[in-house]
């Protein structure tokens, strides 16, 4: 089993993962914190986090006979993605760097399947299931236990040699593989940069995220109106948010991805807000084909861009673009457009 574990790690690297770790299925020490988090209502409308009872924290209730978990990480940060220039330009739309290319769920699961096939080729039939954000799986906790890093104060997993710009995926197995040593402790130390920089103050305490305030939740998960008090804080972030990772000192060790599938498609790395806002639904569906962005749907896409346009400095071309959507069939879109126009009216009055 020691030899097999070493081989699995080599095969994982050959298949494009940056690191593989192995752990057992005992996540009991995360259970209370996860439940407390739900009890406080920090998950907001993400009812799927609550739905599956203990399956998330007790892997063998999800897949019976699971004994070991293979945890994998893959870098996603594309090179030359105009990151800060886009974030700091209020006429441009900022899309999280993880979402610029093809949807990661499918790519990660396919690679994990290839890894499982290799293992099967070497040892014969074994019981397994592959996951990437596709089932009630506590991915960060598993990766932390498997030695891939530590959960930082911003609640993402950080690796001391590679930062945090990576995805996680797993293979649950019925094999008794040797577990890796986990990192002994958090290396955040006295740093609080992510808590300070968070535009909406969503990291309410170290290691505790109130997802209801997180821009990633507001722009991707929430299907209703964005709370009024949070809209002005969202700036030009129209899909996800990277600020807490951008400011994290450990990301100076991050490496760019070599996966071409994660490279920006359809000029999404630094687009003009107005041009995205004027996409028809057909444009939206065509240009986000194969991308995670498509999951939010056209209505939420327009909702998010309307907020960003409302946060942009006053400009007649922005007001004209907003007016074109004032009678949109969706009440959700109309309300956010009205809010954005109201912001510009107010700004115009203040500047007179
Ligand atoms: C729900 C979810 C979200 C929600 C909630 C985020 C969150 N922090 O949980 C929202 C929509 C906000 C979100 C946002 C993002 N997400 Co997300 N998300 C998930 C998902 C589906 C579940 C996460 C989960 O279980 N949360 C539950 C809570 C309880 O977990 P937690 O906050 O980490 O809390 C734990 C610890 O903090 C600790 N803890 C709690 N309190 C305390 C107190 C102390 C004192 C201590 C020491 C510890 C501690 O115990 C808790 C239980 O383990 C996972 C995929 C998966 N199936 O795991 C992806 C996942 C976590 N997301 C991911 C990504 C990339 C993001 C974004 C970066 C995307 C973006 N750019 O917009 C942001 C990051 C925002 C942030 N600061 O976390 C990656 C993270 C990769 C990594 N390197 O860590 C994952 C793993 C997806 C993947 N397969 O790669 N996400
Ligand atoms: S992703 Fe953005 S909004 Fe969410 S915790 Fe990080 S900095 Fe705050
Ligand atoms: S910014 Fe600082 S506190 Fe936040 S996760 Fe990174 S090292 Fe930890």
Q: What does this protein look like?
A:
The protein is α+β, with helices and mostly antiparallel strands. Among the domains are: 155 residues, no CATH class; 81 residues, Leucine-rich Repeat Variant. The protein is 39% helix and 11% strand. The protein contains 15 helices and ten strands. The strands form four sheets. A four-stranded antiparallel beta sheet has the order 1-2-7-4, with helices on both faces. Strands 3-10 form a two-stranded parallel ribbon. Strands 5-6 form a two-stranded antiparallel sheet. The longest helix has 21 residues.
The total count of helices amounts to 15
Helix content: 25-40%
What's the Cα radius of gyration? 21 Å
What structural class results from the helix and strand content?
A: alpha+beta
Bound molecules: cobalamin, iron/sulfur cluster
N- to C-terminal separation?
74 Å
pLDDT averaged over residues: 95
Which quaternary structure do these chains form?
single chain
Largest sheet features: 4 strands, antiparallel
Query: H/E element string?
Result: HEHHHEHEHEHEEEHEEHEHHHHHH
**Total number of β-strand segments?**
10
Q: Globular, elongated, flat, extended or rod-shaped: what is the shape?
A: elongated
């Amino acid at each position: 089993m020691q030899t097999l574990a070493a081989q699995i790690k080599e095969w994982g690297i050959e298949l494009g993962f940056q690191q593989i770790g192995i752990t057992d299925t005992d996540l009991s020490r995360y259970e209370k914190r996860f439940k407390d988090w739900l009890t406080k209502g920090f998950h907001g409308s993400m009812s799927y986090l609550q739905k599956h009872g203990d399956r998330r924290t007790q892997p063998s209730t999800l897949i019976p006979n699971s004994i070991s978990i293979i945890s994998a990480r893959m870098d996603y940060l594309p090179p030359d993605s105009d990151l800060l220039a886009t974030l700091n330009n209020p006429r441009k739309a900022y899309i999280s760097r993880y979402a610029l290319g093809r949807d990661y769920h499918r790519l990660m699961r396919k690679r994990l399947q290839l890894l499982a096939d290799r293992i099967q080729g070497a040892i014969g039939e074994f019981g397994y299931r592959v996951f990437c954000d596709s089932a009630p799986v506590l991915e960060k906790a598993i990766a932390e236990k498997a030695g891939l890093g530590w959960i930082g104060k911003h609640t993402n997993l950080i690796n001391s040699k590679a930062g945090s710009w990576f995805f996680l995926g797993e293979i649950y197995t019925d094999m008794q593989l040797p577990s890796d040593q986990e990192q002994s402790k958090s290396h955040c130390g006295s740093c609080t940069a992510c808590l300070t920089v968070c535009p909406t103050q969503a990291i309410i305490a170290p290691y505790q995220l109130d997802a209801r305030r997180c821009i990633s939740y507001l722009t991707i998960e929430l299907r209703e109106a964005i709370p009024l008090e949070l809209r002005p804080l969202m700036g030009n972030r129209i899909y996800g948010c990277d600020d807490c990772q951008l400011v994290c000192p450990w990301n100076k060790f991050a490496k760019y991805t070599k996966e071409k599938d994660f490279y920006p498609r359809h000029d999404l790395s630094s687009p003009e807000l107005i041009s995205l806002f004027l996409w028809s639904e057909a444009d939206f569906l065509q240009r986000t084909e194969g991308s995670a962005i498509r999951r939010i749907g056209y209505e939420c896409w327009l909702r998010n861009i309307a907020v960003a346009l409302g946060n942009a400095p006053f400009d007649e071309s922005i007001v004209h673009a907003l007016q074109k959507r004032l009678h949109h069939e969706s009440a959700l879109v109309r309300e956010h457009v009205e809010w954005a126009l109201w912001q510009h009216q107010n700004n115009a009055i203040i500047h007179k």
